[in-house]
UniProtKB/TrEMBL annotation:
Protein's recorded name: CS domain-containing protein
Origin: domain of life: Eukaryota
One CC-aspect GO term: cytosol
Species, as recorded: Rhododendron simsii
Matching InterPro entries: CS_dom, HSP20-like_chaperone, P-loop_NTPase
PANTHER family: INACTIVE SHIKIMATE KINASE LIKE 2, CHLOROPLASTIC-RELATED, SHIKIMATE KINASE
Upper classification of the organism: Eukaryota, Viridiplantae, Streptophyta, Embryophyta, Tracheophyta
Transmembrane domains' residue ranges: none
PROSITE patterns per UniProt: CS (PS51203)
């Protein structure tokens, strides 16, 4: 199991396509045909550090959590970003800052953060403060140089195979990046609140270009009655069984986001009803009794197929005290410090961040989910048995193929 925190950037404007202008001079090169460029903007801020502070050309920072900082916005600094096969190139407009010497520029890089400051008029100004990069970099290999009115920063990717939609981890970059990582595999939202599941499903569907479904709506349309009246008339077990049938029907679909029923009324709340939920990536939206800002979301990634599966599940139970034990079957857990519908996109962003980390921890996961679907969602996740075998029996047929 791994933990992370929801990240926020200081970007103010949406990402827009931009024609990348090649540098006039270069300390590194890119394979241009396989590269993509975007441009966006950040708000520079007055630095709290004294003007005499010197960080050096490139200096590693102590690790810190990806979180937003209080800043005073004064104007807008544009930047261009280029994603190459192994390297990243960031171009920052110096604009009004008259830089007479490289000694007036300070670039601080860590594995997951980047801060660029300039000395101007006796003060340190922050051109960019990305406290949560899209993925890890190799800070020791960071270089920068001046190119006319631009500061060019070259960063080495930690994972050369990963495509970076942007330099920062944001809603826009995660929507593009996670959509590529998922390879069409669907997402299921589980948890005690049907309302929260539905809200986040809508946000994720819009961001990923998936089709949203809510099992509550499907059930009420089919049964021609509300869930509450269904429970009164036939009992909660009848609703659970009916939702299981709906989930079975949806399990063969790709590129859908499914909001399930919350609590014990839903199939996800029953440990023996997860057979078809395993067809997609499941996100447990867990409400915490702790008070606090909705932005303080803790993400707990549960990788159930790891060798240390038992300890991972136990850690999930310790971290999420309240809720059905069946929810610990989820691939990732997003623990909410509170709930406000106005922050639904923030919760959706946290979900995408967790899914990105999960898939990057094992890039074969989407293919494994696809195989599980093709073999009929027999309930043998994560230890998929050979075709024709009976997952419920032991012997040689129970040996997993993945």
């Amino acid at each position: 199991m791994a933990t992370a925190t929801l990240c926020f950037s200081s970007a103010k404007n949406p990402i827009k396509p931009s024609k990348f202008r090649p540098p006039k001079s270069s300390l590194s090169s890119y394979n241009k045909p396989n590269s993509s460029a975007i441009t966006t903007s950040l708000s520079p801020t007055i630095s709290p550090f004294p003007s005499s502070t010197r960080f050096g050309l490139v200096k590693r920072l102590n690790p810190f959590l990806c979180e937003s900082t209080s800043t005073v916005s004064t104007s807008t600094t544009n930047y261009e970003f280029l994603d190459g096969p192994t390297e990243l190139e960031l171009r920052l407009e110096l604009g009004k800052y008259a830089i007479n010497s490289t000694r007036d520029i300070f670039v601080d890089a860590d594995e997951s953060s980047l801060i660029v400051r300039v000395q101007h008029s006796g003060s340190l100004w922050t051109l960019m403060e990305a406290t949560c990069l899209y993925d890890k970099i190799k800070p020791a290999e960071t270089i920068w140089y001046l190119d006319d009115d631009q500061l060019v920063v070259n960063l080495k990717k930690h994972d050369p195979e990963l495509h970076w939609p942007d330099i920062i981890e944001s809603w826009e970059s995660l929507s593009v990046g996670v959509m590529q990582l998922l390879k069409g595999i669907s997402i299921y939202l589980v948890g005690d609140s049907s309302e929260i599941n539905e809200k986040i499903a809508q946000e994720l569907a819009v961001g990923l270009g998936y089709t949203p479904f809510t099992t509550k709506e499907l059930l009420e349309t089919y049964g021609q009655k509300t869930i509450d009246s269904w429970v009164i008339a036939e009992g909660s077990d009848s609703v659970v069984d009916a939702e299981s049938v709906v989930l079975e029907s949806l399990s063969s679909n790709l590129r859908v986001v499914v909001a399930t029923l919350g609590g014990q009324l839903g199939a996800a709340g029953r440990a023996d009803k997860w057979q078809h939920l395993y067809a997609g990536f499941t996100v447990w939206l867990s409400q915490s009794e702790a008070t606090g800002n909705i932005f303080e979301l803790a993400i707990v990634i549960v990788v159930e197929y790891n060798a240390d599966e038992d300890s991972a599940k136990e850690e999930a139970r310790r971290n999420v005290q309240d809720g059905s034990q069946a929810y610990t079957n989820a691939d990732v857990v997003v623990k909410l410090g509170g709930w406000d519908p106005n922050y639904a996109k923030s919760v959706a962003q946290a979900s995408l961040s967790a899914l990105k980390q999960l898939i990057l921890s094992d890039k074969k996961l989407p293919g494994k989910k696809s195989l599980y679907i093709r073999l009929g969602c027999r309930g043998d996740w994560p230890y998929i048995k050979p075709p024709g075998g009976d997952p419920s029996t032991g012997g040689d047929n129970s040996r997993p193929i993945l």
